[in-house]
Amino acid sequence: MAIYFDEPSRTFNEYLLVPGYTSSKHVPENVSLKTPLTKYRRGEEEPAISLGIPMVSAVMQAVSDDKMAIALATEGGLSFIYGSQTVEDQAAMVARVKDYKAGFVTSDANLSPDMTLADVVALRDRLGHSTMPVTADGGAHGKLVGIVTERDYRLSRMSLDEKVSDFMTPREKLIVAPADTTLKAANDIIWEHKLNSLPLVDDQDNLMYLVFRKDYASHKSNPNEMLDVHKRYMVGAGINTRDYAERVPALIEAGADVLCIDSSEGYSDWQKFTLAWIRENYGDTVKVGAGNVVDAEGFRFLAEAGADFIKIGIGGGSICITREQKGIGRGQATATIEVAKARDEYFEETGVYIPLCSDGGIVYDHHITLALAMGSDFVMLGRYFARFDESPTNRVNVNGSYMKEYWGEGSARARNWQRYDLGGDKKGMTFEEGVDSYVPYAGPLKDNVAVTLAKVKSTMCNCGAITIPELQQKAKLTVVSSTSIVEGGAHDVLLKDKSGYSSTSN
Ligand code: IMP
């Protein structure tokens, strides 16, 4: 006979946190959002990787490329670079994150000495740069022959056909430093010589990077940033259950810090085989998450198969139509609560704590706090990050409002058939499980994440918690009635600003 779950399939919107005792030490400045990413023996050791903030970006074409990964790692989160692209392209994105040196700019629009003042003006207008290196061949890493800044020319007094070589500051007058100079040392040189920028060159005098005075200050203001032992940004990458023997080595070679099997349904032999292959070839040195699951059985299966973290969620994503198309899934809150209970039991039995990621369906900032309170260690977000400047898509004007495009990996546009693969010879995805959509453009990641986390921290203080484990232990959760949801928003007043207020969905 079929199994019936007693609990209805509930969403985050059906829950509220009931405040606990807030002591004088429960203030937002004291809150730490540090959280484990990979499994560990709690109480005996530290996790191999912890996140500075409990947010990762979804394994999706419209969300996680190298630019997003750098922006999010700067804030303390992590991106999983999408796997629905060729192995080479994905590995190249990972490598770009690892090669990126915060504060070190690779100038990709250089001048050559025989260009003219007109070219300088055109480049300045197009890119807004006021400092332009001059290389012998005009290439990004060509031999450095000079620099042009706004102090080198006066448009009112010079003819536009004057040659760059005649007015640039030539190489012999420039202060430069070797390519392996640290950011701190570069900054000291900048201050000592009152420079605005410092070119770093290799031993052949080829230009490698520029360090700007202003970037050092901004670099220092990111206390949570995710750095590896070599001080490079950390980055994750999505893999699938088909081509792992080819994809995993390429991603590891490119420097990926952690992998995640990206699949709509994780309780399957295919995930077990993929995890087994990774353990056979890399032991525990390669960290890999698995999922998605929505119940205790699914959790136990992936835990025993060796997953380093486990993702929860089927059918809750904003662009997802899996539940409509196939009739499978589970409300994200119910799934999170049940899987967290199974994880805690597993920890009691084995001493191994497996971090959980609630994936999909976060609509309001407070849903993040609910997901954490229910036992998730971090959340994965797609729509949330797709709205920012750093997502891979262009900003478009739709009927007078700026939008960003956002499409599901199961949409015809993404054609990510591996994510929906059910094994056998026939490839998956003969029907769509996701839609193609717009989401309102929301500006830079940094500003939005700051507001979101301010709300999370504030609620944690109301619950008497200054760490995520404390929140998980102390949280008091209540199911809400439909009329209390109405009571929870602004009601029975006429809003002066029809566009809403800041607690509406983001
Ligand atoms: P969101 O944050 O609510 O937009 O959900 C993002 C999550 O939806 C992703 O991390 C995936 O788990 C899931 N997802 C991505 N693409 C699809 C799709 O096409 N169909 C169903 N789920 C999807």
Automatic annotation (TrEMBL):
<dbReference type="GO" id="GO:0006183">
    <property type="term" value="P:GTP biosynthetic process"/>
</dbReference>
<keyword id="KW-0332">GMP biosynthesis</keyword>
<keyword id="KW-0520">NAD</keyword>
<dbReference type="InterPro" id="IPR015875">
    <property type="entry name" value="IMP_DH/GMP_Rdtase_CS"/>
</dbReference>
<feature type="binding site" description="in other chain">
    <location>
        <position position="317"/>
    </location>
    <ligand>
        <name>K(+)</name>
    </ligand>
</feature>
<dbReference type="GO" id="GO:0003938">
    <property type="term" value="F:IMP dehydrogenase activity"/>
</dbReference>
<keyword id="KW-0479">Metal-binding</keyword>
<keyword id="KW-0630">Potassium</keyword>
<dbReference type="GO" id="GO:0006177">
    <property type="term" value="P:GMP biosynthetic process"/>
</dbReference>
<protein>
    <submittedName>
        <fullName>Inosine-5-monophosphate dehydrogenase</fullName>
        <ecNumber>1.1.1.205</ecNumber>
    </submittedName>
</protein>
<keyword id="KW-0560">Oxidoreductase</keyword>
<keyword id="KW-0129">CBS domain</keyword>
<feature type="domain" description="CBS">
    <location>
        <begin position="168"/>
        <end position="226"/>
    </location>
</feature>
<dbReference type="Pfam" id="PF00478">
    <property type="entry name" value="IMPDH"/>
</dbReference>
<feature type="binding site" description="in other chain">
    <location>
        <position position="320"/>
    </location>
    <ligand>
        <name>K(+)</name>
    </ligand>
</feature>
<feature type="binding site">
    <location>
        <begin position="262"/>
        <end position="264"/>
    </location>
    <ligand>
        <name>NAD(+)</name>
    </ligand>
</feature>
<dbReference type="Pfam" id="PF00571">
    <property type="entry name" value="CBS"/>
</dbReference>
<keyword id="KW-0658">Purine biosynthesis</keyword>
<comment type="similarity">
    <text>Belongs to the IMPDH/GMPR family.</text>
</comment>
<feature type="binding site">
    <location>
        <begin position="313"/>
        <end position="315"/>
    </location>
    <ligand>
        <name>NAD(+)</name>
    </ligand>
</feature>
<dbReference type="InterPro" id="IPR013785">
    <property type="entry name" value="Aldolase_TIM"/>
</dbReference>
<feature type="domain" description="CBS">
    <location>
        <begin position="104"/>
        <end position="167"/>
    </location>
</feature>
<dbReference type="InterPro" id="IPR001093">
    <property type="entry name" value="IMP_DH_GMPRt"/>
</dbReference>
<dbReference type="GO" id="GO:0046872">
    <property type="term" value="F:metal ion binding"/>
</dbReference>
<dbReference type="InterPro" id="IPR005990">
    <property type="entry name" value="IMP_DH"/>
</dbReference>
<dbReference type="InterPro" id="IPR046342">
    <property type="entry name" value="CBS_dom_sf"/>
</dbReference>
<dbReference type="InterPro" id="IPR000644">
    <property type="entry name" value="CBS_dom"/>
</dbReference>
<feature type="binding site" description="in other chain">
    <location>
        <position position="315"/>
    </location>
    <ligand>
        <name>K(+)</name>
    </ligand>
</feature>
